[in-house]
Amino acid sequence: MTAAADHRLLAVPDGLAGERVDAALARMFGLSRTRAAELIAEGHVLVDGAGVGKSDRVLPGSMLDVTIPVTRDPLAVVPGIVEGIKIIHDDDSIVVIDKPVGVAVHPSPGWSGPTVVGHLVGAGFRIATSGASERQGIVQRLDVGTSGVMVICKSEHAYSLLKNAFRQRTVDKTYHALVQGHPDPLEGTVDAPIGRHPRADYKFAVMADGRNSVTHYETLEAHRFASLLEIHLETGRTHQIRVHMAALKHPCVGDLTYGADPVLARRVGLERQWLHAVRLGFEHPDTGEHVEYESTYPDDLAHALEVIRDAH
């Protein structure tokens, strides 16, 4: 997480003679005692060229050699080309991309990997400035572990119209999911509120006091071990499809977070959930025409589906 380091060399003034190293460091560099103690413990502080403990005392004239790592802001957008991001459509208002697995949409605490926003900045795209700085132009999100088509806004006009369209649920969001077993009925609607999981803050669950969440599904193919579903999202909660499918006892194949069978995941060669955003349809913010963009299955999902089709 460190981008650079601030290196300083200072002599201990007479007024601090006999002070503990952490106290002297805090006074001389304007740090908290806690931060000073951390730097000493991490080996970033030398006195006269030698390592010290935080409770050691300093002598006047001793040379304090301190390296202060400059921690990177976890929300800073780091420009950089991300291999695998494909541009499906680009005009003055919007850019539609095919997002690969392993890429977050925007920076967030705890994520230091590649981002869609970083890629677009690195590739020279001008993005709308509406929204929080790390989420500028973003009107929808896909999980890091979910691939597929998504739209980012380049103009403020597009941002405001599309943000509203997603809010009003007039955007057609179509996903394909390979789920374990066979949902009964073969097509239906899951209307179950979703909230943060009470015991694992990285997960979500169907919760009585959760937010309204509606998922429509229909079975496209039924195989021995799994079914390929087409899913239309009415709402757009985090992990919505994964949570709803797990609640039906038909988790996405490979989705170990939500109870998928690890043996089946290994058998089909998956290291993530089988879930892909295949189509996105909306009214173009400039022309008002209905536009639709599609994404084909990436190699890992296509391979897993073939294994399921061939299993007897």
Automatic annotation (TrEMBL):
<protein>
    <recommendedName>
        <fullName>Pseudouridine synthase</fullName>
        <ecNumber>5.4.99.-</ecNumber>
    </recommendedName>
</protein>
<dbReference type="Pfam" id="PF01479">
    <property type="entry name" value="S4"/>
</dbReference>
<comment type="similarity">
    <text>Belongs to the pseudouridine synthase RluA family.</text>
</comment>
<feature type="domain" description="RNA-binding S4">
    <location>
        <begin position="19"/>
        <end position="76"/>
    </location>
</feature>
<dbReference type="InterPro" id="IPR006225">
    <property type="entry name" value="PsdUridine_synth_RluC/D"/>
</dbReference>
<keyword id="KW-0413">Isomerase</keyword>
<dbReference type="InterPro" id="IPR036986">
    <property type="entry name" value="S4_RNA-bd_sf"/>
</dbReference>
<dbReference type="InterPro" id="IPR050188">
    <property type="entry name" value="RluA_PseudoU_synthase"/>
</dbReference>
<dbReference type="InterPro" id="IPR020103">
    <property type="entry name" value="PsdUridine_synth_cat_dom_sf"/>
</dbReference>
<dbReference type="Pfam" id="PF00849">
    <property type="entry name" value="PseudoU_synth_2"/>
</dbReference>
<dbReference type="InterPro" id="IPR006224">
    <property type="entry name" value="PsdUridine_synth_RluA-like_CS"/>
</dbReference>
<dbReference type="InterPro" id="IPR006145">
    <property type="entry name" value="PsdUridine_synth_RsuA/RluA"/>
</dbReference>
<dbReference type="InterPro" id="IPR002942">
    <property type="entry name" value="S4_RNA-bd"/>
</dbReference>
<keyword id="KW-0694">RNA-binding</keyword>
<comment type="function">
    <text>Responsible for synthesis of pseudouridine from uracil.</text>
</comment>
